[in-house]
Amino acid sequence: MKTLPSVLVVEDEAAIAELIVINLKHNGFRPIWAMDGIAAQREIETAVPDLILLDWMLPGETGLVLARRWRAQPRTKDIPLIMLTARGDEVDRVSGLDAGADDYIVKPFSTKELLARIRAVFRRRTPELPEQTLSIGELYLDPETYRVSYQNQTLKLGPTEFKLLHYLMRHAERVHSRGRLLDQVWGDHVYIEERTVDVHIKRLRESLAQAGAMIETVRGVGYRITAMPAAMALSAERAA
Ligand code: CA
């Protein structure tokens, strides 16, 4: 018999937690309730859940702090994570995603919405594992270890920049619109502005240093990663 996917529900408000737990149970999931970060950590140490639903405002450490920590640890970094937030402003949503959340849900939410988001995250995450190292020229990305290197030098990337690079490298040489990148990298966040993509592309280029030239802006269309960027071709010609 196939075991049901487990969902760790980190939520301090008992009424909300109970509602989520009941609905998950009725829809083929195995929910585990933790009231705060300490209880959640204990559950994770016992068994790694298949997905984490993480409330932003918790007693003790906030969901944002927990998300960052879990993303940084090998045991927890691959667990799909959905943040629950009562706050509405964009800055928070972006920082939640920057902390490594796959998605977020704004309270109050309907059960239908919650289940749809959970299923979408599972769909997005599942076919990606396990994955092979990707390379373009001397740029390497290992999705398993979250390592990126160029000319044998390890590069440090933020979680969003990593996801962005991962997506671009999986679909190299193709031009992607900002809207497509938002869909594919951030999820179905129609309310995030397209300039968010520009901000992260800028950061990605900075993190890639020399290899940043491989991320090309295609005017009026979007971005692509290419093995032979125009900028590099020029400098190669000059060097010859
Ligand atoms: Ca709360």
CATH class of the largest domain: Alpha Beta
Instruction: Report low-confidence residues grouped into runs of 5 or more.
Output: none
What binds here, in terms of ligands, is: calcium ion
What share of residues are in beta strands?
Answer: 15-25%
Describe the main β-sheet briefly: 5 strands, parallel
The name of the CATH architecture of the largest domain is 3-Layer(aba) Sandwich
Could you tell me the radius of gyration in angstroms?
Answer: 19 Å
* H/E topology pattern: EHEHEHEHEHEEEEHEHHEEH
Q: Could you give the distance between the termini?
A: 64 Å
Number of domains: 2
In short:
With 240 residues, the protein is an alpha/beta fold.
Description:
The protein folds into two domains: 120 residues, 3-Layer(aba) Sandwich (Rossmann fold), CATH 3.40.50.2300; 106 residues, Arc Repressor Mutant, subunit A (Orthogonal Bundle), CATH 1.10.10. Strand 3, helix 3 and strand 4 form a beta-alpha-beta unit. The chain is built from nine helices and twelve strands. The chain is elongated and about 55 Å long. 42% of the residues lie in helices and 20% in strands. It has 240 residues and is an alpha/beta fold. The mean pLDDT is 86. The strands form three sheets. A five-stranded parallel β-sheet has the order 2-1-3-4-5, sandwiched between helices. The chain binds calcium ion. The site of calcium ion has 5 residues, from loops.
